[in-house]
Amino acid sequence: MVPKISTLSGYLHEQQKSIANPTGFWANIAETFFWRKKWKDVLDWDFNIPKVEWFKNGKLNITENIFERHIFIQGEQKALIWEPNDPDEPNIEYTYNELFSKVKRFANVLRRHSIKKGDRVAIYLPMVPELAIAMLSCARIGAIHSVIFAGFSANALQERINDAKAKILITADQGLRGKKVINLKETADEALRSCPTINSNIVVRRTGGTINWNNEKDVWWHGEMDKVTDESKAETMDSEDPLFILYTSGSTGKPKGVVHTTGGYMVYTAYTFKNVFQYSNGDIYFCAADIGWITGHSYIIYGPLLEGATTIMFEGTPTFPNPSRYWDIINKYQVNQFYTSPTAIRSLIALGEEWIENTEMKSLKVLGTVGEPINEEAWHWYHDHVGKNRCPIVDTWWQTETGGIMISPIAGIIPTKPAFATLPLPGIQPVIMDEAGNKLCGNSVEGSLCIQFPWPGIARTHWNDHQRFKESYFSQFPGYYFTGDGAKRDEDGYYRILGRMDDVINVAGHRLGTAEIENAINEHPLVSESAVVGFQHKIKGQGIYAYVVCNDLPKKDDGEELRNSITKGVSKMISPIAKPDKIQFTHSLPRTRSGKIMRRILKKIAEGKGDYGDISTLTNPEIVEEIIEGNKKIQ
Ligand code: WTA
């Protein structure tokens, strides 16, 4: 098992060691895993190419490190607890032995469908145990999983399947979230109309609802599981073989397939899980994220299972059947660590204290947040009402591309400060840059957050697009990984994340590219162009504000219909999560002389802030007045 820091001086010591000798530091941690063959070099890297390779030529299988490594000591320990959407439905609990058996079986199903090492498997499932099983089965046979969030539309699913040229899709008849039934199979059918590389579609029966069936491609999960045994050898993987692709949004309209490899990701997720949450043997850990995003990959599945923890997977929502749902789950399973998003916390605050007042939650030891900045009010409520003033909060800053947590308190060890991610974990070397690319030394500085040395969890490339990978993170500050976030280091050396500096917005913890949303809006036949910006939103952190230029601008009173049809279009093209909260029609957009849209001004207007700076450099300064006037009617 990976080493655990237990004191502040221990943290400082590890941090110092990890900077003085990064390769020695990570090699020591990697040694605690099971390798079929040891690596030759710990690290080979050059951020200018960019190239990062950890433990290359080391041979392993991540599932052997989850199952075979733990089975002898704790095969009967619970690995996965699945809590259904409806609390009246029975839950499912798998021990390590039981989960292993399912994983081996499904690995054989995949093999029967001719899936081999290196093939891509698209997974479009709700939060059901089969999702965890499918991911681990891919890892067992060396196939690369690409999990696509079940809230994405047919169009978004199709785009991701085709980009990765996935050979097989795994979906469900329907998904359940609160009172909603989500017709996944129907959406998948629509996507598959134009996915030439998909040979079969394995369907999990979740609800038994009516679905269309395509005899050529569709097979039932349970039917396939009955055809195979649970004997399944693990494929030998190189440390640098891809483990998964996860699509995420960037500054351009096209989602990028972030690629994580095997050895480094394994070492990094296990180490950060154990240390940040101060996991101890026997703890029950509950991360309420969705596995469709990186948080679920790293901190529902891989990190906890690599450390032999019991991880809870929850199908439903925080408010169904009532807003005590999370607290009930915490009491039911005696949860020790709870990890969620600031948006979930804010939405529960808005529903009133009566839902949390009489909850005990005595088992809780650590609380975590992730995905977006947490405001002080939400931080205090979390601390006082959920943690009952006795649980440290770990505000964990990281990204899809970083694989695991980067800057965060170590629970109970690094003193916290509301809204601060505090200090880098051992092995992480953050720097703050000014606009000219100078490293800002010392404390009380603010600028672009970069990382100056690789860590094992860093993404290696974008699927089929290394050039874009380079441009996205390694071109702004040559020799450094640029996170896209702004940050400040305060007088104590603590980091506070200030939010994205690029055209990415973070809505309810979901990362969305403004260009993606604009593309979807522009598909509408009456729209000639659009500009999307984020604005401060009380619950979601950021909301989506769209400025839309129409060929036939709606008259004052008939804009609603057009707004609705634009919104519907965005839902269909991307997902309901990308729907604009506000749409303002305008005759044109403010542009610089080089033709670029001045988003800075649009953002200020959307947020109701004055002081637009110098607008004389615009080709059409007069439009600013019109937009300000129009905005007043939108609020
Ligand atoms: C933001 C989620 C402030 C940040 C794990 C980052 C945060 C983006 C925090 C990545 C935090 C994540 N405080 N902001 N604790 N954690 N972010 O790829 O802007 O979905 O760049 O990964 O979320 O989002 P992603």
Q: What tags apply to this protein structure?
A:
single chain, 635 residues, alpha/beta, Rossmann fold, GMP Synthetase, Chain A, domain 3, 7-stranded mixed beta sheet, 18 helices, globular, binds 5'-O-[(S)-ethoxy(hydroxy)phosphoryl]adenosine
Summarize the topology.
Blueprint: H1 8-20, H2 22-30, E1 41-46, E2 51-56, E3 59-60, H3 62-74, E4 78-83, E5 92-95, H4 96-112, E6 120-124, H5 129-141, E7 144-147, H6 154-164, E8 168-172, E9 175-177, E10 180-182, H7 184-192, E11 200-204, E12 218-220, H8 221-225, E13 237-238, E14 242-248, E15 256-261, H9 262-276, E16 284-287, H10 294-306, E17 310-314, H11 325-333, E18 337-340, H12 342-350, E19 366-370, H13 376-386, E20 393-396, E21 430-433, E22 439-440, E23 445-451, E24 461-462, H14 466-473, E25 481-489, E26 495-500, E27 504-507, E28 510-513, H15 514-522, E29 527-537, E30 541-550, H16 559-573, E31 582-586, H17 599-606, H18 622-634
Bound molecules: 5'-O-[(S)-ethoxy(hydroxy)phosphoryl]adenosine.
What does this 3D model show about the protein?
- This protein is α/β, with parallel strands linked by helices.
- Among the domains are: about 140 residues, Rossmann fold (3-Layer(aba) Sandwich), CATH 3.40.50.980; about 130 residues, GMP Synthetase, Chain A, domain 3, CATH 3.30.300.
- It has 18 helices and 31 strands.
- It has an eight-stranded mixed beta sheet, with helices on both faces.
- Strand 1 and strand 2 form a beta hairpin.
- Helix 1 crosses helix 2.
- It starts with 7 loop residues before the first helix and ends with a helix.
- The model has no long low-confidence stretch (mean pLDDT about 95).
- The chain binds 5'-O-[(S)-ethoxy(hydroxy)phosphoryl]adenosine.
